[in-house]
Design goal:
- The complex is a heterodimer of chains A (232) and B (307).
- With 232 residues, chain A is mostly helical.
- In chain A, 71% of the residues lie in helices and 0% in strands.
- Chain B is an alpha/beta fold and 307 residues long.
- Helices cover 52% and strands 11% of the residues of chain B.
- Chain B contains eleven helices and six strands.
- Chain B has a six-stranded parallel β-sheet, with helices on both faces.
- In chain B, α10 packs antiparallel against α11.
- The radius of gyration of chain B is 24 Å and the shape is elongated.
- The model of chain B has no long low-confidence stretch (mean pLDDT 90).
- Classes of the chains: A mainly alpha (232), B alpha/beta (307).
């Protein structure tokens, strides 16, 4: 039962969504399943939160390596949850002044917006910015012209790296009009729009065919690997 | 040169290459830090930015917004979070600024959990600060975040109010004047997505634009990493595309030029993308230099049979 019921839900839902794109009469069924999917997606957040708490509590109880980080994760999670659910520092919605919790979490000056502005934003931006340092180190150590493919990759990288900045204009901006196609800024556009587009389209068509094939296998109940293990 | 001298020179060169090859990566981090911080300081002090020549993809974004009649509805999806704001926020700011200046009615939505806050911040920085005459609910509205990724997009195709039953203030969609005539996504002549990955511009093309290509236009802004995946859709499905900070700088320069007032300097918040092109230039040059040095070492060691 643990496998059969989810399989039939997937089959009915999948067919309803698919048919709603082709048959106007099935539109409302597709809409209903899309609606249900949104509810399920919201419930998935609860499951995700439960899974996060379970994993880190286990790590804590076993005193695994790095258990101190689990305290920080769980602490941040609980504090944010507490602040968000109790809507600390949020005034009621002007339309419903009597309802204490009718205000929005996005409201300026709320505790949640403070967490967003002074914790989430700087922390995530810092993590993203660190990429530049690691990419530079990797470029120095790993980007070697070992064979023809690597040489082509290197050449393309140089064109795009220089063509996407003012360096391209300085280096090749003096090329006469009849050779303007060879200017680095134009070459980088050419690389992106011709070579990249051709390669990406080929990959995308391959992926689309694979997705269609896998989708049909799931819809017809042939592929049941997504159900995982367990009793039938 | 004697044989002894030659061997000495050879040995010293080899040790040089070996030392360079084994250089502590913290030295490279330091170089990158200097490469980025130098131009930031220089641009901060002088206020000068590098000139931009807008490409076709960036020009198309500007024109798509520019050609809309005043009071047209624009759906703007903030599909990114603060991690990518360094790359995407300047274009988001300029896009909202051009829409506000054109007196277009903007409906903000988010398919990323923190996208709603980013949209709210942009509304504050651009609309509330510089276009205070625009009223929330009549001229713009932030519908907030909705979970469900592609399912939300599918729902938008048939029923906007079901996908977003209330705005970020808690106001019911049916009570919001700007959405009075909005039944579904195709009621918006223009969709703008600023995205950092999944779900984002690619999914908008697959689930919404492919169904409404004749009814609504679509322009997108994206990170450098996702730009190659979106180029295949330009210009058929994606009418205009801003790829990374370079695309943002090109577009920003066009918006600034179109809204320029004689004798009034452009506010620094509207120059963010162009300001970031300076550090990007030096960082890219450093990367090219590092790759060249790395390869010189590689070939030198290979020639000596060490690689």
């Amino acid at each position: 039962m643990k496998r059969i019921i989810p399989m039939w839900i997937a089959i009915i839902g999948g067919f309803a969504m698919m048919l709603s794109s082709f048959i106007p009469l099935a539109e409302s069924a597709g809409e209903m399943f899309a609606d249900v999917f949104n509810v399920v997606a919201a419930i998935a957040f609860v499951l995700g939160a439960g899974s996060l708490a379970k994993q880190h509590l286990e790590k804590l109880s076993r005193r695994d390596a790095g258990w101190g980080y689990s305290i920080i994760t769980l602490g941040s999670f609980l504090i944010t949850l507490f602040i968000g659910m109790l809507k600390i520092g949020i005034h009621p919605n002007p339309s419903f002044p009597q309802a204490a919790y009718s205000g929005s979490n996005d409201a300026e000056g709320s505790a949640w917006s403070w967490i967003y502005e002074y914790m989430i934003t700087p922390l995530t931006s810092t993590m993203f910015a660190l990429l530049a340092f690691f990419v530079a180190s990797a470029a120095f150590r790993a980007f070697r012209a070992k064979n023809t493919e690597a040489i082509l990759l290197l050449g393309t990288a140089f064109i795009v790296l220089l063509g996407r900045t003012f360096a391209g204009v300085v280096l090749t901006g003096w090329f006469p009009d009849w050779a303007s196609g060879l200017r680095l800024e134009n070459l980088s556009i050419y690389v992106m729009q011709v070579f990249n587009t051709a390669g990406n389209r080929a990959i995308m068509i391959g992926i689309a065919l694979g997705v269609a094939a896998t989708g049909l296998r799931i819809l017809f109940g042939i592929d049941r690997s997504w159900l995982g293990g367990g009793d039938a | 040169m004697s044989a002894g001298n030659f061997n000495n020179t050879n040995a010293s060169a080899r040790s040089w290459f070996e030392r360079l090859d084994r250089v502590d990566r913290r030295w490279i981090f330091l170089l990158m830090f200097l490469a980025v911080s130098g131009p930031i300081l220089w641009i901060g002090v002088t206020g000068k930015t590098l000139p931009e020549a807008p490409t076709l993809a960036a020009r198309a974004v500007f024109q798509e917004i520019d050609q809309l009649p005043a009071r047209s509805l624009v759906l703007i999806s903030f599909d990114y979070d603060p991690a990518s704001a360094g790359e995407l926020q300047p274009m988001a700011t300029s896009l909202v600024r051009q829409c506000a200046a054109k007196n277009l009615r903007m409906v903000f939505i988010a398919l990323w959990p923190l996208g709603s806050q980013v949209a709210q911040q942009t509304i504050q920085d651009v609309i509330r600060d510089d276009y205070p005459a625009l009223k929330e609910g009549d001229d713009f509205v932030n519908m907030g975040y909705q979970a469900g990724n592609e399912a939300v997009m599918k729902l938008l195709l048939t029923d906007f109010a079901k996908a977003f039953p209330k705005d970020s203030r808690g106001e019911a969609t049916s009570n919001i004047p700007i959405l009075k005539d909005v039944k579904m996504a195709s009621n918006f002549p223009l969709l703008i997505s600023i995205s950092a990955g999944y779900p984002g511009s690619k999914e908008w093309v697959q689930y919404v634009i492919s169904a409404y290509n004749d009814k609504m236009n679509f322009v997108a802004g994206c990170t450098g990493v996702s730009a190659p995946q979106l180029y295949p859709y330009f210009p058929q499905q994606i009418a205009g595309l801003l790829g990374a900070i370079k695309g943002a700088a090109e577009y920003e320069s066009m918006v600034n030029e179109s809204l320029e007032v004689d004798g009034v300097a452009t506010a620094p918040k509207y120059l963010q993308a162009q300001r970031r092109m300076g550090p990007q230039l030096v960082a890219h040059l450093l990367m090219v230099g590092l790759i060249i040095v790395g390869n010189v070492i590689f070939f030198a060691r290979k020639r000596r049979g060490a690689a």
